[in-house]
């Protein structure tokens, strides 16, 4: 493997994968002492600001002119992602095991396939059907509805699933505008606009804005700067230097790494159903990546 590929593609993938795999553990630790709405606002406001300079460079490079309707659409995307998806997910993490939440979120491409069929008319191929079958079977075993694992609750699992579905909808709706706007500007601006909408909600409902940040500075810094800023940049960098299918390796690594981190840091236990669920999800993810590569070759 060329040294250049390691530095430009696989190192960014590993940085992203570790950051996102440890996200739920960090969110669970800090979520016990900070309001979920407040924490989500802070992490994406900071993350969006960190991505903004790179977005501006791309906007200038391509001489991009954003119209009012573009900004309104980005505000819609941001609202779907931040005040809806990420708040639901944060609430779900509080009421479930970090390892369970991490694995469920990593399979959000399942829902993207369904939404893409109804919203933008993407065909559901034979490979996608197999991917869906393996993926949803994996979620079933991870959730273990016949006997919930200690630390999980139906409320928590429902919220995590709802958050993952909303994020998938954000991803699919983003495909409508990403060709024109670009992935970095779209992400940075939608994050900031979504964080602003959430800020208004926080103020209107009398929730804290700055309380608890200093006391939890290390964790807030990690989930804001590293997870919501640097990790997104390294993810986009890997895609830029390779392709989307290669960047998807992140979602292949996270389901394996996240439970290990949860066991080490939080002392969570991994039962047999988790191993079965992870195996099914890894199979689904492999088939998804392989399908994308085959499709790219045909084009």
Describe this entry's structure for a reader.
With 299 residues, the protein is an all-alpha fold. It has one domain. It is built from 13 helices and no strands.
What is the secondary structure topology, with strand pairs?
Elements: H1 3-21, H2 23-31, H3 36-61, H4 68-94, H5 98-106, H6 109-119, H7 126-143, H8 154-181, H9 183-204, H10 217-240, H11 244-247, H12 250-266, H13 272-298
Regions with little confidence, pLDDT below 50 for 5+ residues: none
Characterize the overall form.
globular
- Count, helices: 13
How big a fraction of the residues is strand? under 5%
Roughly what is the average pLDDT, rounded to an integer? 90
**SSE string, helices as H and strands as E:** HHHHHHHHHHHHH
Report Rg.
Answer: 19 Å
Please estimate the helix content: over 70%
> What is the strand tally?
0
- Total count of domains: 1
Largest sheet: none
Structural class given helices, strands, pairing? mainly alpha
* Cα-to-Cα separation, first versus last residue: 25 Å
């Amino acid at each position: 493997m060329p040294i250049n590929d390691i530095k430009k593609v696989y190192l960014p993938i590993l940085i992203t994968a570790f950051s996102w795999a440890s996200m739920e553990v960090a969110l669970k630790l800090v979520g016990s002492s900070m309001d979920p709405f407040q924490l989500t606002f802070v992490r994406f406001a900071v993350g969006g600001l960190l991505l903004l300079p790179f977005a501006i460079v791309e906007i200038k490079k391509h001489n991009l002119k954003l119209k009012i309707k573009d900004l309104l659409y980005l505000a819609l995307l941001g609202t779907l992602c931040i005040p809806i998806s990420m708040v639901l997910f944060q609430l779900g993490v509080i009421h479930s095991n970090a390892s369970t939440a991490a694995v469920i979120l990593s399979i959000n491409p399942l829902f993207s396939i369904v939404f893409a069929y109804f919203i933008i008319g993407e065909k559901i191929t034979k490979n996608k059907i197999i991917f869906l079958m393996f993926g949803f079977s994996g979620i079933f075993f991870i959730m273990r509805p016949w006997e919930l694992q200690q630390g999980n609750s139906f409320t928590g699992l429902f919220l995590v699933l709802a958050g993952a579905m909303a994020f998938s909808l954000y991803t699919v709706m983003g495909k409508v505008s990403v060709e024109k706007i670009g992935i970095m500007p779209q992400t940075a601006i939608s994050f900031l606009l979504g964080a602003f909408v959430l800020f208004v909600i926080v103020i209107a409902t009398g929730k804290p804005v700055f309380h608890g940040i200093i006391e939890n500075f290390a964790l807030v810094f990690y989930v804001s700067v590293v997870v919501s800023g640097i990790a997104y940049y390294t993810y986009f960098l890997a895609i830029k230097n390779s392709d989307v299918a290669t960047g998807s390796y992140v979602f292949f690594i996270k389901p394996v790494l996240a439970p290990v981190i949860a066991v080490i840091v939080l002392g969570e236990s991994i039962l047999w159903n988790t191993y079965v669920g992870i195996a099914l999800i890894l199979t689904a993810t492999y088939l998804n990546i392989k399908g994308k590569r085959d499709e790219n070759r045909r084009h």
